[in-house]
Every structure is written in C-alpha cells, then in structure tokens.
Amino acid sequence: MYVPEIFALDDPEKTAEVLRRFDFALLVSALEGQAPVATHLPFVFDAGRGAKGTLRAHMARANPHWRDLAKLAEAGGEALAIFSGPHAYISPSWYGPGDAVPTWNYVAVHATGIPRLIEDAGEVRALLTRMVALHEADRTAPWLLDGQGEAFLARMQRGIVAFEIPIAGLEAKAKLSQNKDPGDRRSVAAALRDNGEADLAEWMEDLT
Predict the structure, then answer these.
(1) Neighbouring-strand partners of residue 93
(2) Domain of 142?
(3) I need a surface site. Which of 114, 185, 191, 206 has the fewest CB within 10 A?
(4) Contact predicate 13/1, CB 8 Å
C-alpha cells in the first residue's frame, strides 16, 4: 500500500481498532503463475496471539480459495487481509479560499502473514462460538451455538474450513486531510458530520 509519511497511521491502538471494528475484510492470495484470488470474510483479531496479533476466520469448504491457503502455508508464502475503515468523498467546496481538487479521505489497514489451516475440531468450534457471540452480542435475543443440536453443528462445521494468519506485517494508513491547514480540516470534519459521516469526522478530530 502506498503510504506517504504524513498519512501513516502509527498508533497501534487505532490500528487495532480498525481490525476489530471493521472486521469484514478482503482476503487476497496469489500463487506463483496464477491470478490473485480474493474472498470477503469476517475476521476475529486476537491481539494476544503473536507479536503483532493473529487474524482468524473461516470460509465455505466449497470455496477453492482455502486450497490456495494450504499451498501458501506449505511454501511459506503470505496472504493479505485488507481492512477498510471509514471513508468518504471530500468536496473542494469544503475548504477555504484557494485552489483545491476533489479527493477521498479514508482509513485502511493491510495485514500480511503465512496462513495456517485450523484442523482441530475443538479449536474450530471455539472459533465459531466466539464469532457468533461477538456478532450477536448487541441483540436482545441472541442466537448462540450453545443449545443448538450437535448433529446440526457437526454438519455445519464440516462445511467450512477455518484458518488463522499470525500477522507478520502491518501497513496502516489514515488519509484525513493532514496536508491541509487546521481551519480546512475543521471545515471538512464539520461538513462530514452534516453529511452523516460522523465516524470519519471523529477520526479526523482524533488524529489531525
């Protein structure tokens, strides 16, 4: 990822926030001599596993992408997970007097590492339990794995392939008008709020 120094996101906590909050990411891998393959997946970020944390996810067994991950693991090759945070169009009319062009403000994190298939059934079940609990947490009547029929759960589990990516490399970018003066940044943040982009405005206020 192209990351000019002024847009580099160097805050580990903010980087981890992207991995946790914007957890529906794009997994990309490329075997030598083949076109890249991409799959959109929800991930769980475990900051306590490994020096830079570990990403865990699963995909349908019918998706051939997992076989590429297995080949990468054997060859010591890396996969790439792309996390997109808040983003929005920025109009030149939001700046003060002077020349300006349209642009896009955004937050993004790229994580790379050698994938590992998770083959232990207990470990896969623990991952599924965690993911379901995480995404059902805000529901008044959450659907949980506990209490579901074991035959159904076993059948469901056979239909997926779980994996993890111990993170070896992280690239984090927050392009948030840092190249503009403080007055222009405040003006852009205010316009974003008026346009329903409060999340991106908060990132601008926190980091610029």
Answers:
(1) none
(2) 5-207
(3) 206
(4) no
Q: Into how many domains does the chain fold?
A: 1
Quickly tell me which residue has 């995480």 as its tokens.
134
What is the DSSP track for 47-112? TTSSSS-EEEEEEETT-THHHHHHHHHHHT--EEEEEEEEEEEE-GGGS-SS----EEEEEEEEEE
Find the CATH number of the domain harbouring 24.
2.30.110.10
> Rounded to an integer, what distance in angstroms lies between the CA atom of residue 73 and that of residue 97?
54
Q: Identify the sign of the CA torsion 50, 118, 80, 205.
A: negative
How far apart are the C-alpha atoms of 56 and 43, rounded to whole Å? 6
Helix (H, G, I), strand (E, B) or coil at 177: coil
The identity of residue 196, as a single letter, is G
Going by the DSSP 8-state scheme, the letter that residue 6 receives in this structure is: G
CA 115 – CA 60 distance, rounded (Å): 16
Write the pLDDT tens digit of every residue in 81-138. 999 999 999 999 999 888 889 999 999 999 999 999 999 999 999 999 999 999 999 9
* Separation of CA 77 from chain center: 20
